[in-house]
Design goal:
Largest interface: A-B, 92 and 92 residues
CATH topology of the largest domain in chain A: Rossmann fold
Strand content of chain A: 5-15%
Structural class of chain A: alpha/beta
Shape of chain A: elongated
Order of helices and strands of chain A: EHEHEEHEEEHEHHHHH
Largest sheet of chain A: 8 strands, mixed
Oligomer: homodimer
Radius of gyration of chain A: 22 Å
CATH class of the largest domain in chain A: Alpha Beta
């Protein structure tokens, strides 16, 4: 397919090369900021612009990959009512692309993207939604050309998946940040925790996370929990987070308590 | 070295075979519950007992690997004052083994162990502490025979590392459980999140977790955050956890807000 990318952030930066590897042609990159459009355009050997008025009309699909709160704005300025327009967001509905738009869709890659870290797109589930059967078919073919896991998900399902992903990914990553801070305060090396972090994620690839739960809260080991709270008493925010997580684990593992 | 294991839980179950592979001999397994001692004893082709009075006297080291709140009890009933006695806990001090004990130590493998999931012990950092230089040397040799990462850590440092590990591992795993629950409430499949969970942990093997942070809180995307809170309004506990984590991420990424 011939594709125009509208956006140059983390998702577009990973999606562009994956689509090329899938055999598709990126005609053009548009971004609000010309230098960003140029940077990704050069990586993809594609044309680039910051002017929606100069968009290439010959693409089969236009993929909006910008911050959620700008999607509506970009969609309403998109000049081709007859073309297939999709966004890549997990959180906003397909209707943000325009309620009267005939060919609209969502192409949501369920992954955490950082520009610095390469990714194997074959392992990234892509959740698709289309305004018509024809759009569904096209998005399914496009997604299957870059990922081995493609699922249909309507906007309500996608919102649930995105919320779950925030807990599993964004919040977990923040816990890594917190743990790094706790170690550095004592001059200790965060690298010591890396095998633990890797194994914690590896375990749930085959075990149910409730069965994989270990640690003082899982054992309802109140003595250790008290010692930890004592260690955190100078950091009220972390103490509150510790208490909330610990109570939540105890409720899960010891519902009779 | 000749070793007696006191305990048959998750840690002992993984440590025993690793020590054997490191060239050591497990003479005996003791557990409070004879059937558990027997089970691990058979795996290790070692003697087993539930009676501290019948412990084999010929070992070089006795490794207590039981719940933290029973370590003191086991240590005070341990019959050989002249022998090297260590525990494997991250949370309790070495002094729990007896203040007057000449040869005492800690041998703390920094990892999450579940009986069902095999582990490569070479990748598990081992934190050691000894009551004498001789003990330190012996523990260092023992640890280096099973792991490529051995560090000295006193009881205060170990307590900080253990607390950080609770955030990075136990709490992250609980977030996986929470995310699974959110999906299952909608009939959606937790497996969809597995690549995301794997990648989140993989990213921080090379990126600083603060730099790897993505998601609505990292972008301070209040519209998405409001939508998520709306989705959670029927689960006050999860809503509180969501709010606390989100505020904590915003404080980290947008300290000026």
């Amino acid at each position: 397919m011939k594709i125009v990318l509208l956006g140059s952030g983390n998702v577009a930066t990973h999606l562009g090369p994956a689509l090329q590897q899938g055999g598709h042609e990126i005609l053009q990159v548009w971004s609000l900021t010309l230098s960003n459009a140029a940077k990704l355009g050069r990586v993809l050997s594609a044309d680039f612009t910051d002017d929606l008025g100069t968009l290439d009309h010959s693409a089969d699909i236009y993929i909006i990959s910008v911050k959620d709160d700008v999607i509506g704005e970009v969609a309403s300025s998109f000049p081709f009512p007859d073309k297939l327009l999709v966004h890549t967001s997990g959180t906003v509905g397909m209707d943000l692309l325009g309620k009267d738009r005939l060919y609209a869709g969502v192409f949501y890659p369920l992954q955490t993207f950082s520009k610095q870290k390469p990714i194997n797109f074959q392992e990234v589930p892509v959740l698709i939604e289309g305004s018509t059967e024809e759009v569904n078919t096209n998005l399914n073919v496009l997604a299957a050309s870059i990922s081995k896991t493609v699922r249909a998900a309507d906007s309500a399902q996608r919102a649930s998946i995105h919320l779950a992903a925030v807990f599993a990914c964004n919040f977990s990553n923040h816990l890594y940040t917190v743990s790094k801070g706790l170690l550095e305060k004592r001059g200790l090396d965060f690298n010591l925790l890396l095998p633990l972090i890797a194994e914690t994620a590896a375990k749930v690839q085959s075990l149910d996370p409730a069965d994989a739960q270990t640690g003082p809260a899982a054992r309802n080991d109140q003595e250790t929990i008290s010692r930890h709270k004592e260690q955190l008493k100078a950091s009220p925010d972390l103490l509150q987070l510790y208490s909330l997580m610990t109570e939540s684990i105890i409720r899960c593992k010891h519902p009779d308590q």
